[in-house]
Amino acid sequence: xxxxxxxxxxxxxxxxxxxxxxxxxxxxxxxxxxxxxxxxxxxxxxxxxxxxxxxxxxxxxxxxxxxxxxxxxxxxxxxxxxxxxxxxxxxxxxxxxxxxxxxxxxxxxxxxxxxxxxxxxxxxxxxxxxxxxxxxxxxxxxxxxxxxxxxxxxxxxxxxxxxxxxxxxxxxxxxxxxxxxxxxxxxxxxxxxxxxxxxxxxxxxxxxxxxxxxxxxxxxxxxxxxxxxxxxxxxxxxxxxxxxxxxxxxxxxxxxxxxxxxxxxxxxxxxxxxxxxxxxxxxxxxxxxxxxxxxxxxxxxxxxxxxxxxxxxxxxxxxxxxxxxxxxxxxxxxxxxxxxxxxxxxxxxxxxxxxxxxxxxxxxxxxxxxxxxxxxxxxxxxxxxxxxxxxxxxxxxxxxxxxxxxxxxxxxxxxxxxxxxxxxxxxxxxxxxxxxxxxxxxxxxxxxxxxxxxxxxxxxxxxxxxxxxxxxxxxxxxxxxxxxxxxxxxxxxxxxxxxxxxxxxxxxxxxxxxxxxxxxxxxxxxxxxxxxxxxxxxxxxxxxxxxxxxxxxxxxxxxxxxxxxxxxxxxxxxxxxxxxxxxxxxxxxxxxxxxxx
Amino acid sequence: xxxxxxxxxxxxxxxxxxxxxxxxxxxxxxxxxxxxxxxxxxxxxxxxxxxxxxxxxxxxxxxxxxxxxxxxxxxxxxxxxxxxxxxxxxxxxxxxxxxxxxxxxxxxxxxxxxxxxxxxxxxxxxxxxxxxxxxxxxxxxxxxxxxxxxxxxxxxxxxxxxxxxxxxxxxxxxxxxxxxxxxxxxxxxxxxxxxxxxxxxxxxxxxxxxxxxxxxxxxxxxxxxxxxxxxxxxxxxxxxxxxxxxxxxxxxxxxxxxxxxxxxxxxxxxxxxxxxxxxxxxxxxxxxxxxxxxxxxxxxxxxxxxxxxxxxxxxxxxxxxxxxxxxxxxxxxxxxxxxxxxxxxxxxxxxxxxxxxxxxxxxxxxxxxxxxxxxxxxxxxxxxxxxxxxxxxxxxxxxxxxxxxxxxxxxxxxxxxxxxxxxxxxxxxxxxxxxxxxxxxxxxxxxxxxxxxxxxxxxxxxxxxxxxxxxxxxxxxxxxxxxxxxxxxxxxxxxxxxxxxxxxxxxxxxxxxxxxxxxxxxxxxxxxxxxxxxxxxxxxxxxxxxxxxxxxxxxxxxxxxxxxxxxxxxxxxxxxxxxxxxxxxxxxxxxxxxxxx
Lengths: 597, 597
Fold this sequence. Notes:
Chain A is of the alpha+beta class. Chain A folds into three domains: about 5-200, Aldehyde Ferredoxin Oxidoreductase,  A, domain 1, CATH 3.60.9.10; about 250-405, Aldehyde Ferredoxin Oxidoreductase Protein, subunit A, domain 2; about 415-595, Orthogonal Bundle (Aldehyde Ferredoxin Oxidoreductase Protein, subunit A, domain 3), CATH 1.10.599.10. In chain A, the strands form five sheets. Chain A has a six-stranded mixed sheet, sandwiched between helices. In chain A, strands 8-7-12-9 form a four-stranded mixed sheet. Chain A is globular and about 60 Å long. In chain A, about 65% of the residues are buried. At the A-B interface, helix 7, helix 19, helix 20, helix 21 and helix 23 of A face helix 7, helix 19, helix 20, helix 21 and helix 23 of B.
């Protein structure tokens, strides 16, 4: 089948069985693949009352129609599941080559359920999956694990000690630290006794209309080469190009979002990273942008840190020692933890300390304790064991939930919404919690991409955000990277998908697919018990104006934006999709299947 | 002064005097030049109860900071006045080289008032203006006039018989038909006894920061060369590339908007134009896109027709004889009339005939009568004399105002708003009437540029439209072309203006400037007696669903969009800008000066 392989690889770790199934073509057309397909699979196969760390939860690794296709940024894939951190439906997206190899092995999806009685790792080839014992890998850090499994023509992702110890923000990563990062997907692998996955595949996906594809690809490549963001800013400085810019706007969080600027941001900026740590640029498979940073400290070599990690492991902790931040980033990657949630939960602990709730040495600015704290978390030692549960649980344990900078249990990324109203609405409404990758308003509110909006205005933001949410759902579903959207418009995604699949997609069809995915995620969360009350922000953002910096004096006007948002989505005032909308999206016929255990 | 010349040339035709004045730098910074400066001049100098064809009205030809600067599409200029057709403040924009030469002569503005006792033409050089007798030019068509005045290193615009005869949609054009086209600006020149203007100038504008300018220009040129719309669609087919696309969507008007599709659209498409009439591409000064069509019929050579002219002189009249349409376009250009209002008012007459209100041979489909009718209008003969007053007055004369496809007296361009909700809101709210160039929703609603919105949704459109309205006000004010915005984002306009003027403009500063201009236009119209009731559409669009084609079944949901629009603009429910908004835009200190006659 052009566009998709139409095949799904199933693994039941409890039974020790594997099989290959066909995927209904209509499902692929409708949900596109990647995140869309994963959402469909979780919705239909995982009842919301499932224990995320139990046998019944699934890990649905899904590739998109463009994953492994030689287009700019065609190297991304997605992992959908029920998150142990948030309790929401969750998808995590990576640029690791694992997804590419999975696709080349011939699979649109790899769905893993069950729990293995002993540690195992999984080998995936065009023939199917093989379960191997992993007793000797258990306990190893990620790079060690992967170097043990290394073989030409393969790509491996693994969990580290954090995943084994079910840290609720444990990640799954490759040797470079490119991760299915957020939501504690690594803890699920740990709970399943699954240490690593290695994919081997060589078969490039079919292209329905090669001539048209080549032309669209040529035009897209021209755009990527021409756009200043994809040909200059990102290749030159990576995502951390944002540090100085965001700090200027007063939305670069420090001290657990108690401040929106960081005096010494320049010490931990993309410019500084280039000066002191950069070895060379890196790129995900198929990516001409190359925003990755191959870096080194005096002791170690690795990738990153990304912009978000610099905030989480740096400014938010009041730490400006770049060597420590870079090392902390490496350490998180080796141990297998999401840098954002890890750092943000440490920040939460630091604020609990500051407010006298927590008796610990770990206070703002203590760079000297950072690396040890990260290890304590991964190995669940002492206070680390409490931090390993994420900021929501940690703050509730100390009876001060307001210091957890999270929505629906997911910790905030590095943009203070008080200086970006639409971003505030985004955090409140994202189906996986406080996320910047489910419709980032950075473009329209700060960079003017694709159009500049008044960042302090709340009126009219909902309409724009909804379109961004749909576009991002589409990009996550077809297997491309959001950064390419700075260079090519949504019409290119439709043109690519059309030429690859042979099925006519207009830009508007993709928006509709994005809306379908978004609403399906919402329906899942509603069944899981989330309500309109969970579309919220920590009171800090709606009640405490920033005191200094480029966004001083502002709070988020969430309520009015939310009212507009529900109305524009044809949802009720309680945030429930109308019957009419559900039918229009073709979601009325979807049944949540009862799994047989 | 970098960025602007800071000089204004004033001509009083009653007194026969001319002078050169300084323009306050703060005004230029705030209103940018071009349309913004013209709006300021009309607002402060022309009381709204002025007779548009009387002595007190001014013609304010304004150049922008980028007019005549060698950047992609830096060849545009603007003309602001009080329109005799609409009674609103009005600006008309052109790619004629006249504006470039005016700028090179050293002027940001040329302001003409008064009435000459005898026909004159105006010569503009760096030294100032000279008034010359034009008795021998009077009565001539535009190309004849201009060839008489032709001189190396100059550019001339003129009126034709239509302007002399005060046809309310008479234009001012150069020999190629590139016009200050809409709103009857040619009638004002006619009323002033001013036949033509010739500008001679050689001094290129100063650039504050050449290195940065060169870099921005390099990046912008890369984008124009890379973007499929500016490097492929527009160069290849011109604006008439839209005929087949719009017809497909069911928004290509025929029979005076009684239908949204035209069966034989393919006969009058951009593809057909290329096949049968194209001689070569043409381009305005400084434009790498080159959307102009140098064409020829068996009898004549000229430019065009543009997409809008093909609708107005073709499909809307139920005429698919392309030779007649091309000839009619040439004829309008020679006689000096806006093709849109001319054709649309003929369509109005045809519908009056169809409905039995008007006893005439001129009925839908009568291609054989078109050229004669156009001449009759320009020379105000018979029914032509009535059509020369525009559709609003014509339809009211026959007591059937609902068949005039106009808003605030300005006739519709070629996009049926029943298939584009946001476009409907645009027509209703544009300060100069039913205009597609004051915030076109074609991009977001049909082309996916910069993002694809659901064209049939009304929710959320207001927010997007407002941003588009501001961007377009900015582009009109700095002297660039809206087509370039398909390739470069708003940030480029800020970067260009910054490098040329040496004054730091962020993208958001330009949005604010656009908002300032928009609100000032609004305030003028309110003082002129327009009210919220004039933000309306002909009942056809809100009450009669299209019966066939790609937008069948739809009407415009104007009221709900309008409510949202006023709210987002911080205007009252009556459409009046709030005091707070007026202050925020710095418009509270602006005084409408009483002119001394």
